[in-house]
Design a protein that fits this description.
Bound molecules: manganese (II) ion
Oligomer: single chain
Distance between the termini: 67 Å
Length: 549
DNA sequence: ACAGTACAGTTATCC
DNA sequence: CTGTCCACAG
DNA sequence: GGATAACTGTACCTGTGGACAG
């Protein structure tokens, strides 16, 4: 059985020699033992990997973890690998390494230093141009130069060059192990160095990120298309591929987000038709707002309202209702808008005149309030979302089936899913029950002590010092916190944004929240909604409108 | 519904 | 020569 | 002059050394 308990992966500081090899073995073994049904195209690689000696495995891992596929022999010297020549020969024999590979012009430009380019050009052209720039010297080659040539043909007397093979194998294993494309081997290292600590979780063989190979491939396709958009490839081509994807299951949201972004790019390029099509297909609420705005010039007032109402049906989040309303009735005060069911209470606003300084405006307001006897912190979302996470920690990290599949997760996969709480009813009930107890403050402080530093996506530990938690628990009424937690559970993704900038405490144990606005800044919708909610709940919150001078 | 996200600051444009 | 960037390392 | 949209910057481990541009 693979060992997935982070505490067992943790080593003394500094790292052991061969740490990267051990990490790679952990990853590879884990994948082949648990996901062998997803790795059918890569069966030979398993035995070819097993057949390698320690130094050859180590050298391979070193190469796979570096950027690109091409390496000069002199770049493959590592102190722990005593016999690099033997390792290279082994890798070559088992088809991990290609000596004297075919190299494209782009690859050539990438792997050579300018000093090497000088030598190469001297041989090929018989002269060395005086000015050599990294991104233009390829143009000095004769126009009929082949796009691809064997390395030895590019530079007959040049140093030895190798191409490492099966990079796709390695990328796929990493994707399988982590279950996402954003984590990599550095997570092992950071965990071992104790730069990060992860919640230890019992491991279960049913916890797999991908149910089958099709899902894995679809994930990769989505990723490729996202990168293509980033790289500025033609939007039409990307859109065509995106539209052609089959049912994506749990990845539908990623597709919708990508369609939204692609539509923005299409609009930027003037392709309004494509933008409309993408935003029509995407179920992302922001896409509906964009769609309405795009169509607005073509519609009469009544049609606009009708379309807005229609789009509103498919959008659950009030944040986006406000945005839809703004398209239809721009510059209308919130109280006059109609769809929210109840009018949005306008927030209390206080004014403050300050001399414009170097610091951020929030810091300046803090100082000004300190002179009026209010000590405080710039906390943004971190305080309330952090307290929330402490309170519901056992539910967040409950070992629900399918929620955790790698040892370096800072949240369960379904944290933002609407069904998150209902899948954890018992443990949620426990958390609420503990919260109702008289000694809830003590319990939360103990939780802070126990979990401090452990990675949790809802907590930024530097912004949640013990003193702040103590002060917050001492001064904020329990009903206020309960109300805030309840609203957070309604839509964790959207409601964990837009909480006020500052929390302030006075000598009598009162507190107040403050959203700071510089003259050029405006309230965002999420901030409006939180402020209105707090107003209703009797939570002391206001907007501090700063003026300069 | 699942790694891009959050917020402030700047500019341009509209009304 | 200097500062910036970025790949790499732990 | 306020509202609005669009875009940018910065943070998410830290340190080092080579390569490059000026
Ligand atoms: Mn803020
Ligand atoms: Mn603010």
């Amino acid at each position: 059985m693979p060992k997935l308990d982070p505490s067992q992966l943790r080593a003394a500081d500094p790292l052991q020699p061969w740490y990267y090899l051990h990490n790679a073995r952990t990853l590879i073994n884990h994948c082949y033992q648990l996901y062998s049904d997803l790795l059918t195209p890569w069966q030979q690689q398993w035995s070819a990997w097993q057949a390698l000696g320690q130094e050859a495995q180590a050298l391979l891992v070193r190469m796979l973890m570096r950027k690109g596929e091409l390496f000069f022999a002199r770049q493959l010297i590592y102190s722990e690998i005593k016999h690099p020549e033997q390792a290279l020969a082994e890798l070559q024999a088992l088809d991990w390494l290609e000596p004297d590979p075919e190299v494209s012009q782009a690859e050539l430009a990438n792997c050579l230093t300018l000093a090497q380019v000088k030598e190469l050009l001297a041989q090929r052209l018989g002269r060395v141009p005086s000015k050599l720039r990294a991104n233009t010297w390829l143009g000095l080659l004769p126009a009929d130069t082949a796009e691809h040539q064997a390395w030895s043909a590019w530079w007959p007397q040049g140093p030895r060059l190798y191409r490492v093979k099966h990079q796709l194998w390695w990328q796929e294993l990493q994707l399988l192990f982590f279950g996402n494309a954003h984590q990599d081997m550095t997570d092992f290292v950071l965990s071992e160095l104790q730069t990060r600590r992860y919640e230890p979780l019992p491991w279960h063989p049913d916890n797999r990120p991908f149910a089958n190979r099709e899902q894995l491939l679809l994930y990769q396709q989505l990723n490729t298309l996202a990168k293509a958009l980033e790289a500025g490839e033609p939007v039409c081509a990307i859109a065509a591929q995106l539209m052609a994807l089959p049912e994506l299951g749990w990845m539908t949201h990623s597709r919708d987000k990508l369609m939204l972004r692609l539509g923005l790019e299409a609009q930027r390029q003037g392709n309004l038709e494509l933008a409309e099509q993408l935003w029509h297909t995407s179920q992302h609420p922001e896409a509906k707002v964009r769609l309405l705005r795009l169509l607005k010039p073509r519609l009469r007032a009544a049609e606009l309202v009708a379309l807005g109402l229609e789009l509103r049906q498919g959008v659950q989040q009030p944040e986006y209702w406000l945005a839809l309303e703004r398209v239809i009735w721009p510059r209308q005060p919130l109280e006059q808008r109609q769809w929210l069911g109840q009018a949005l209470t306008a927030p209390k606003v206080t004014s403050l005149v300050l001399a414009k300084g170097e610091q951020r405006v929030e810091q300046q307001v803090l100082q000004a309030m300190a002179q009026q006897g209010w000590q405080g912190q710039h906390v943004e979302n971190h305080l309330f979302v952090g307290l929330f996470a402490l309170c519901f920690w056992p539910a967040i990290f409950a070992p629900v089936k399918g929620a955790f599949f790698n040892p370096f997760q800072d949240r369960p996969r379904d944290l933002f899913h609407p069904d998150f709480a209902s899948r954890r009813q018992d443990i949620m009930a426990d958390c609420w029950q503990q919260w109702q107890r008289e000694d809830y403050r003590q319990l939360l402080l103990e939780r802070w002590q126990a979990k401090q530093g452990t990675a949790c996506s809802l907590i930024h530990w530097p912004k949640l010092p013990l003193t702040l938690v103590e002060q917050a628990l001492a001064c904020i009424a329990k009903e206020h916190l309960t109300a805030i937690f309840t609203r957070l559970w309604q839509d964790l993704r959207h409601h964990s944004r837009g909480l006020p900038d500052l929390i302030l405490f006075d000598q009598q144990g009162n507190y107040q929240l403050m959203e700071v606005k510089s003259p050029t800044d405006r309230l965002q919708d999420q901030q409006r909604l939180w402020l209105a909610f707090m107003q209703q709940q009797g939570i002391p919150a206001c907007v501090c409108q700063v003026r300069w001078q």
